[in-house]
Design brief:
This protein is mostly helical. The chain has 2 domains: about 1-60 and about 160-195; about 60-155. It is built from 6 helices and 2 strands. A two-stranded antiparallel ribbon has the order 1-2. A hairpin with a 4-residue loop joins strand 1 and strand 2.
Length: about 200
């Protein structure tokens, strides 16, 4: 059993979340350093979980801007890609309509290229409206605005949870600092008693 000279955390000044730890340390002083080590690790894990949950519910300006720009770029690319597929579909339709070359004075088909052109769904793609870079840019802006609006609605619905998680994060940070300080005090006192 360690000597009685080990420091005891002050019940009056410690955060309320650590009162049970102070009680355990006063009851079992021989395991104080193990208990403090366990509580520090547990509080760090809990702090990480709280930070991650808060980050999922709330927003950080940099993360939100990155999400909006990335989704806008993807929407722009997809809109332009579908426009290119529509153009290929129109090109396919023009090839299919021009594959029958007839010589009018003989009235017989000279070349039939239809067997060489692959049969695919390009006819369906040709019904997609034709739009260029400006229209694709407007589609990207629309997607970005829709995502921003959705994020704002989500944040406004979960505002109280976000605030509670922020308060919990601050409390856990304070408790973690206090536990680290206690751990240092106990290790310093142990070194003095062993010397």
């Amino acid at each position: 059993m360690p000597p009685k000279s080990l420091p005891k955390p002050n019940i009056q000044t410690c955060p309320p979340g650590l009162l049970a730890i102070v009680d355990l340390i006063s009851r079992v002083p021989a395991r104080a350093s193990d208990l403090l080590e366990y509580e520090v690790i547990r509080r760090k894990r809990e702090l990480i979980r709280t930070q991650e949950a808060r980050a999922l519910l709330s927003w950080h300006p940099w993360e939100t801007m990155r999400l909006l720009v990335l989704s806008g770029a993807v929407a722009f690319f997809l809109a332009w890609f579908f426009s290119a597929i529509a153009e290929l579909g129109r090109f396919y339709n023009s090839i299919v309509s021009a594959t029958h070359i007839q010589v009018p004075f003989i009235d017989q088909r000279l070349i039939d290229l239809l067997g060489l052109v692959p049969k695919s769904s390009f006819r369906l793609f040709s019904s997609i409206p034709d739009f260029g870079a400006l229209e694709a840019f407007y589609v990207a802006l629309g997607v970005m605005a829709l995502l921003a609006f959705t994020k704002l609605v989500f944040i406004s619905i979960h505002w109280k949870k976000i605030k509670l998680l922020g308060d919990a994060e601050r409390e856990l940070g304070e408790e973690l600092k206090e536990l680290e300080r206690w751990k240092e005090d106990f290790s310093a006192a142990k070194m003095k008693t062993q010397a």
